[in-house]
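Question thread 4412

I'm putting together a teaching handout and wanted feedback from people who do this every day. The idea is simple: show students a protein as raw sequence, then show them the structure tokens that encode its fold, then repeat with a second protein so they can compare. Below is the first pair exactly as I plan to print it.
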Amino acid sequence: MRYCRRRLAAAGAAVLAVFGLALAAATAGHAATLDDVRARGHVVCGVTEDAPGFATASDDGTWSGLDIDFCKAVATAVFGDKTAVKYRVVTPANRYHALTAREVDLLPRAGGRTLSRDTELGVRFTDTLFHDGQGVLIRRGYAVASVLELSGTTICVMKDTPAAQAVETFFQSRKMRYQIVAAEKWTDVVKAYADGACTVLTGDVAMLAAERSRLAVPADHVLMQELISKEMLGPVVRQGDDQWFSIVRWTLSALIAAEELGISSQNVEAQRGSANADIRHFLGVEADLGQGMGLARDWSYQLVRQVGNYGEVFERNVGLKSPLALERGVNNLWTRGGLMSAGALR
């Protein structure tokens, strides 16, 4: 009897071992995003259409924006060529399905990172590319310096949305008086503000900046620095592929680290001769940082040379010299009062 039990236990263990190996092989076969990307010859990025400053296409089909530059950065890390990328338009309703269905390789800036999205949709959030949140747009003529001085104001906001709930929570918790001017469509909300039906317009900072750029005199309107709520937006990849997760996450870290080290697209060539050990390490002069991810030794050097550092990417797409005219604020480096920081590239 004992012999039979041992035989059955051994057989069961063998079956489980074979099943485990088969599952591991299947997972590995479906997880090798880098192999698929290289065989295809380009990265496929899922981007939101008509997102000023982040992802817009010109009449000739040329894409530009912060999201687009991040996709170029990933292409540069993988191929050493920022043009080795194609863009597929996704919507908030289908973007995660497009990713898990392998229609795209990554989403550069999907919805805010939440526990349910990160654990229930078959996707992984890598890090924060852009700190967004619910902000306030107000006409320059109002003598207020803080959101806390807006008691008694009228607020234009979309009806029955998280933004409307955030206004209620923010003002009621501080015992501030307010009056809502609501509409079901964003375009109607913006029009109400433009027509003077309310004192302030509230929504995501990126949306407010885009709408300000379209107003008759953008300079007459100010985006207040304080946020009613926060949201961390960044690259998203499929679950189950640690190598691709690392490539995307460390591409973002490399953009930020380059700015921290003072390396830009303008000086990166000269910086290869720097006496600073951290800079030489980052640029692959004294270390091969790409080996563990299956990338070339000079991947971070090429990334900065072709795309720039995070500060350059931010400024040309959404910064003060762009139509959105956003201040760095929370998207500045941690050494300058912001929240952006990079993991150690070593």
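The second pair follows. I'd like the answer to focus on this one:
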Amino acid sequence: MNTPVLSIDVAKGKSVAAAFLSYHDCMYKPFPFSHTHDDLNHLLSILLQMKEATGHEPNVVLEATGNYSKPLVSFFTSHGYSVIVLNPLLTHQLKQKAVRKVKTDPIDAIRIAHVFYLQSPEPQVELSDSVQQLRVICRQYQHWTGLYGETQLHFRAVLDLIFPGYDKAFHKVCNRTSLELLSRYPTPKELLEADHEEVIELLLSNRRGRDWNESKLVQLLAIANNSLPDLHAIQAQKIVLMHYIQLLKTYQDCMKDLLVTMQSMAESIETYHLLRTIPGVGPLTAAMFIAEIGDIKRFPSVKQLTAFAGLDSAVHESGTFKSKKNRISKRGSSYLRTALYQATVAAISKQIHGPRNSILFQFYQQKRTEGKPAKVAIVATSHKLLRIVFGMWKSGQAFNCG
């Protein structure tokens, strides 16, 4: 292959590039450059030189390095160059073949070029702006969900010290009504001394009706009477509890805004409505599917999409030995894998009139009958769901339970 290549080993703020006219013809040995307009414009001039020298449009090749590589990909694609983003596993495999164990940025830049010439990878399919915007919102929503869950654990640890037993009164301790009540009466003593009518008025924000809330007050007072808080440093504990309450409210507001934005963005994409026809796939999981898969044309086969989701088997064989307990690789998009798992659990859950998705439920039951543990059966069913998504997206046909 005589295609000219500008290979880049990406790092934070400063990277190393090398220019090759062909596999054995290095035009510029590895050199460092900063992620500034002046240095990037210098790289553009090198790309022009490479085109003049070969008569072919050069490719820009780099490793996927998360946020560090994204601005560079955006820069070169905006200037009309084909950008190929390599899986770091490919360069790692080439490094493992070397006799000497050497790891430097200049050598890595050369290895990246060699992987391109030896593997002939395809340029990545440019995602539409709407999908890229949706991906940012979806991933941030997932991050905020994780932070919110972690904050709840710390909050409950403090609550168990300052007001033991309080969580028995509320199915969801972190709902808005519960948080407002705690912010006003954070200890058993303060709740017992409170005006009952004021507490009822506060509880009525849950829209349950007066009778229900009066019985809830009776339950709360009984818990407070029998609660044994830690009286050591209780003022400090109250301060910490108030900060956690404020933090939880902030997370809830931000997540609500992100969810509304996410759904609004997703609804403008035609595939979203197609995926929503699958029983068990809700607004959030459908948006996550689109955000992570992006364009189904990126995956010529369902096997490649399965690998991208990290649901392919990590086969372990040596000589005559073949492992019978092969786990999934988990090397793909963890966001897509999580969304598939959530959608599968929703699909196989039983409702009044039966499971939401009879096809997936029957497949899950089959795996359980074969002796698979519940989680293993859910993962297998997630794989089945992914194949359904692939087929529907390729054909443009809505889900058919028959």
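Top answer:
Good format. For the second protein you could add a caption like this: The two ends are 49 Å apart (CA to CA). The beta strands are 5-9, 14-22, 25-34, 59-63, 82-86, 317-318, 321-322, 350-351, 354-355.
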